[in-house]
Every structure is written in structure tokens, then in C-alpha cells.
Amino acid sequence: MAEVKPTSRLVSGQFINIQRLHVAKLLSDEAGGTASYDTPVDLGKVLRSIDIKPSNSSADLYADGQSIDTATNTASYELTFDTAALPLEYVAYLLGHKCENGVMVANKDDVAPYFAVMFQSDKRNGSRRYTKFFKVMFQEPSVKGSTKEANISYQTPTLTAKAIYRLSDGNSYTYADTESSGFEAETATNWYTSV
After folding, report:
1. Which of 29, 34, 99, 192 is the most exposed place for a label (fewest CB within 10 A)?
2. Could you tell me the pLDDT band of residue 1, with boundaries at 50, 70 and 90?
């Protein structure tokens, strides 16, 4: 695909909200093949904030006393989801544990599956940016609680995860923005229905 030079003086609305966290279990991802996913699951009104940190590395090549080239690489992305509350069934699903009759059991042989993760960021001007990570593995959350005091303090769980590149095509994530040139409404309509 040829590089397209953007026009000058583009503008973008300011982000004021994040919402609509969905996950879809990755069923297959083989090099040279096509990745396949289960039907997405809407986790409901749980997302309070998200932090996306790329794991970057860089190197400089020196010759004749100066840097003559530099290279950078992003190996993965560390994702942190601050949530309002997560039902036990979702915790078990994301971490590969068993949950039956309201009881979740974490076994030493449990393996956390990979998921696609989808959400949207809303802008003050009514526009939206959609985000989709293709291959994410969630990690066991740390749990912290405190006693009830005179002033109520909510105790909200935080989920951490790592996003890596798919074997099938090398992709890690995609963005779609309603303010971008050529954006089609169908993209927003279908964002959470499939990966």
C-alpha cells in the first residue's frame, strides 16, 4: 500500500470518555493463515480508564565518532484496565479459570487464552476513536481492600494484560476515527460485532 501524505492543519477533538469494553476469544492464529475469533462479549459498563504503554527499545549505530543511524522496535504493549467491578464469570473467562455455581477455582494448570480487546474513546465534539487490539493475554489481578470508614471509598479492581503481534499477519492493533478522511459509518456499526 502506497504511503498517503496527510493534508496540513488537520484537527482532532479532545477525548473526554472511554467506554464499551468488549473481548473476543482468539481461536486460531497460525503463521501464513487467517486468525479466527469467537463471538465478542460485551463486558458492560465496567471501564473506568485504560493505560497503554508500548515496550520500546532503540539502538544507535556509531561510525567515525557519530551516530549514523538509529533503529527502534516495539515488542509488545502493556495494557492496564481500571474497572468499576468485574463479575466472577468474566474474571474466570479472561484468565482461563473454571467458574461453576458461583464458585471460581484457579488451578495451577489453567492457561489464560488470548483475546481481541475492543473499546472506544469519545470526544467532546461528538466524534469517536475506536481501538482494537488483536492478541491480548490478561494477567492475574492484584486484589486490595480496605474497611468501611466515615467517608465511602470505592474499591475498584485493576486488570493488566499484554498485547503482542498476531502470527497470521503481524498486526497488533488498529484505530478507526470518525474524524478521519474517508471514515465509513459501517466501520462503527460493525466494530463490536466481529474481529
Report:
1. 34
2. low
